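Re: weekly structure request thread

Next one in the queue (401 aa):
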Amino acid sequence: MTSPVFLTRVVLRNYKSIGNCDVKLQPLTYLIGANGSGKSNFLDAMHLVRDALVGSLDNALSERGGLPEVRRRSSGHPTHFGIRLEFILPSGMRGHFAFNVGALKNGGYEVQTEECAIGGRGKGPFYSIERGKLKQSSESTFPAVTSDRLALVAVSGLTAFRPVFDALVSMGFYNLNPKLMRELQKPQDGRLLKPVGENIASVIGHLEKHAQEQIKTIEEYLQTVVPMVHGFERKAVGPMETLEFRQDMAGSAHPWRFLAQSMSDGTLRALGVLTALFQGNRDYSPTLVGIEEPETALHPAASAALREALTKASRHTQIIVTSHSPDLLDDPNLDPDSMLAVLSEGGETHIAPLDEASRRAMREHLFSAGELLRMNQLTPDREVLATQAKNQADLFGDISV
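Done, posted below.
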């Protein structure tokens, strides 16, 4: 089986509360930290990349309140932010995509530098752009680009760079909203679940047609989390659609059927999380799935099933979850390498692997990650943070090994 890892390394500069970040990702990565520590901002940086490629950079920034709300606020008043994503394509080729966006005096913004390379500089497809002008490229022809858009959108028309574009837009990021999942939905593209679950009926319908084995997996985990629920299916309601659930009722020999509008927040969130995890199929599969606090609205007893589902899904799709739940992490077999600790100090977010004391306690089975979290002992490695601050990683240049 090929590795599920798509993003191997993420470097951020001045993104929201994150001044500087340089971390490596695993098939399953837990971002652990208190409320308000900046976990969501880390996921949002990758989400912005996807939004800017699917729509436009202008829309992606506007949806987040504009450049002033995206770049980090500090006494130093940074005027730019930067993102670097290192990846492994489905073909096995490594590469990176990086850019920084800076403010203009008239209140606008520009992509100051953008770079994409597959296989390393001089070894494969490559381009470098500064302020809307092509500086270097491996290709004999190159589309027109402008400084207010990411060039990869235009460059995706070239065969060499299409795999990078396709992989980045196939990332999915989720903060599921039971209220919207409960409402009647217009039929939509069901290949990829949308961020708050607003097209979940279409996604379930797509899986019913193309991946019955995934539906079975989702149903099995959902029944473990919500034992009364025996199944679900897409249901047409005039020109709209919703989900219909089969649920045990006392005194009835057969399950009763209920539409999504009658189901609890916990049940709908659980279904949304499981659908996000197991939506991949032969027709379409996400390269990465990021989920905000998947344990929200679930009973603590469901944590073991959720943790098992996360692990199973990560064998086929790279998974990143944010959490501050000791119950979700209460497993002595969790790998300390799969965790990144997130800490906020002075309004700035710091992200790094766990410190050596925490790692040793987990490796020697002295404490589980959940127990350490209850004792407030899951903290980032201070030496790594000091190194990050002293030797800030270059957004541009060849990939790290």
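Residues 175-286 form one domain. The chain has a mean pLDDT of 92.
Next request, please.
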